[in-house]
Structures are given as structure tokens and as C-alpha cells.
């Protein structure tokens, strides 16, 4: 029988992450726990996979990180946390950009395979088909998207929009406009827009929304279309859309409460009353590395984690 990290954890009565930390020489594990886990590993003759052996050998493992856009504020926050965690485990990152192109991801994964990359952290997007990435099962963690039988870290898109709307509703707003993203984008687009429409239905509000892309230019261009109808406040699907909306409002000397998902320090400096939502981007990065390290240590179980958010 092929042993896994889960078998070691159950016999030692500790968590899988603890076994992973022992295998990766994490100093946070207490000496007593480390000794117990190492003794069980020796007794059972447990052999981690090739990636785990590389992590403990003289050659540093390499992890490929595929982001969709290097200029994305949200992905930059997640990537920063990923890099910090990888460096702390002496893992070398190789960062590339997909630009939302499935064929680009396929090409990059093939290059990773040729170069014997130990694992991959992939920022998913709606147009990316499962067949391109499932061959990396057991050596891959997805960020922002869920796929069957693949470990991932994803966001609470639906409830995040609801939380922003609830706060504005409590403040007395009944004509809340929404700047969204096209439905082709399943998470930032369709799920967040559906949340807005369902909120309007529950509270008998008249929907007023427009959809574009994720750029601040889109927010600037769409804002006047939204204001063609009575609007007392605006919720934006992303901080980049909020930047565009704020620019339009200021240029036209209009004052409206703004709310958006994600935090942007530059945006908040120009709009100190902006209602923002900490979407947990750094937490997503830390979890992505943790799940990948568990795979390196021999844990073949699929784990999918939803990142918690917090209104700020």
C-alpha cells in the first residue's frame, strides 16, 4: 500500500499540515512533535514524492506561477504573499503571465514539464478548460477558480457583493447602481452580477447596472451610462472599476458614495470614505503555497478552500 501524508498524520494524531512542516524542516514545529513524526516516518518507511525529496535535497525545487495579469492589483497582492511563502521554504519561483489565453497556459505548462518544474500555482480564469490543467493534478493549486478534483483557493464572490450592498442599504440607499464585468467572466463577472440582481429582488429595488471589462478605463466609460438613471450610490465589482468611476465623478463634480471589492491604497488616498472589502488576497497566496507543499509531501487528497473576506 502506498502511504500518504494523511496516513502519517493519523498515526501521529496530528494535522496533515504538521507532517508537511516536519518534512519541509519548518522551525515552527515543536521538538517533541517533530521527533514523533520523524519516528513514524522511519518506522513505516514513508517516501515522499520526487518534489518533496527535492525540497530536502541540495537542489532547490522550482514552482511555476502563472498569473493572468502582472498589472492586476488583486493578483499582485496574492502573488506577493506567494513569493514570500516560497522564499521562506527555499523554493525558486518562475513567474509567467497568461493574459487570459488558454493556449498560452497550455504552452507554459508544457515548458514547465520539459524543465521538470516541481509544481504549479495557476491563477484560473473562465475560458481555461479542465483538460489543459488536469494532467498536473497532484502538483498544482489553482487560485480564484474551482475545478473538479483539483486543489484550489477561491473567493466568496457572491457574499462579498451582498455585504457591500447590505452596508449601503443600512445607510439608507435605495438606488444603488452597479458597475460590473461581463458574464463571460464567471467569478468577477457572472457571480457578482447575479448577487447584485438577487439583492435587488429581495429588497424590491430597481436594478441599475452596466457591465464592461476589468480596466479602470471601462469604469470611466460606463459610469455616465449608470448615471442616466437615478443613483444614490455605486458598487463596483473591482477596485480598478472604482478608480475609473471615481475619476469620472470627480471630473464632473459629482459626489456619490462608492464601494468596491478589494483594497487599493492609491484609490483610498483619493477617496478616504470609500467602502472597501478586504477580499483576503494575501491569505489566498499563503494557502496556495500551503496546499502545494502538502502535495509535495505526498498528500494526494484534493482540498478546496474559500477565502474569508472582511468589510473595512
From TrEMBL:
Family annotation (Gene3D superfamilies): 3.40.50.2300, lambda repressor-like DNA-binding domains
SUPFAM superfamilies tied to this protein: lambda repressor-like DNA-binding domains (SSF47413), Periplasmic binding protein-like I (SSF53822)
Keyword DNA-binding: yes
InterPro entries on file: HTH_LacI, LacI/GalR-like_sensor, Lambda_DNA-bd_dom_sf, Peripla_BP_I
GO MF, one example: transcription cis-regulatory region binding
Keyword annotations of the record: DNA-binding, Transcription, Transcription regulation
Domain HTH lacI-type: 3-57
Domain of life: Bacteria
Family matches, as SMART domains: HTH_LACI (SM00354)
Name listed for the protein in its UniProt record: Trehalose operon repressor
Organism, as annotated: Haemophilus paracuniculus
Amino acid at each position: 500500500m502506498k502511504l500518504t501524508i494523511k496516513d502519517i498524520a493519523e498515526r501521529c494524531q496530528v494535522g496533515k499540515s504538521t507532517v508537511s512542516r516536519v518534512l519541509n524542516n519548518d522551525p515552527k514545529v515543536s521538538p517533541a512533535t517533530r521527533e514523533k513524526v520523524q519516528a513514524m516516518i522511519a518506522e513505516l518507511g514513508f517516501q515522499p514524492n520526487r518534489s518533496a525529496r527535492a525540497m530536502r535535497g541540495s537542489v532547490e525545487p522550482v514552482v511555476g506561477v502563472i498569473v493572468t495579469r502582472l498589472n492586476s492589483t488583486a493578483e499582485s497582492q496574492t502573488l506577493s504573499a506567494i513569493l514570500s511563502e516560497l522564499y521562506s521554504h527555499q523554493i525558486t519561483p518562475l513567474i509567467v503571465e497568461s493574459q487570459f489565453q488558454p493556449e498560452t497556459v497550455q504552452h507554459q505548462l508544457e515548458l514547465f514539464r520539459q524543465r521538470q518544474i516541481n509544481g504549479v500555482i495557476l491563477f484560473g480564469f473562465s475560458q481555461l478548460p479542465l483538460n489543459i490543467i488536469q494532467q498536473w493534478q497532484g502538483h498544482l493549486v489553482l487560485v480564484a477558480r474551482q475545478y473538479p478534483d483539483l486543489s484550489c483557493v477561491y473567493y466568496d464572490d457572491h457574499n462579498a457583493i451582498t455585504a457591500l450592498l447590505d452596508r449601503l442599504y443600512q445607510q439608507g440607499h435605495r438606488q444603488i447602481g452597479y458597475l460590473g464585468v461581463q458574464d463571460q467572466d464567471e467569478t468577477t463577472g457572472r457571480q457578482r452580477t447575479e448577487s447584485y440582481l438577487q439583492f435587488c429582488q429581495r429588497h424590491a429595488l430597481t436594478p441599475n447596472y452596466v457591465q464592461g471589462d476589468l480596466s479602470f478605463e471601462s469604469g470611466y466609460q460606463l459610469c455616465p451610462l449608470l448615471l442616466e438613471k437615478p443613483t444614490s450610490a455605486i458598487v463596483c465589482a473591482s477596485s480598478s472599476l472604482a478608480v475609473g468611476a471615481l475619476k469620472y465623478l470627480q471630473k464632473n463634480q459629482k459626489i456619490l458614495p462608492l464601494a468596491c471589492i478589494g483594497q487599493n491604497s492609491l484609490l483610498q488616498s483619493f477617496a478616504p470614505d470609500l467602502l472597501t472589502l478586504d477580499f483576503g488576497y494575501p491569505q489566498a497566496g499563503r494557502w496556495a503555497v500551503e496546499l502545494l507543499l502538502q502535495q509535495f509531501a505526498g498528500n494526494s487528497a484534493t482540498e478546496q478552500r474559500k477565502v474569508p473576506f472582511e468589510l473595512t
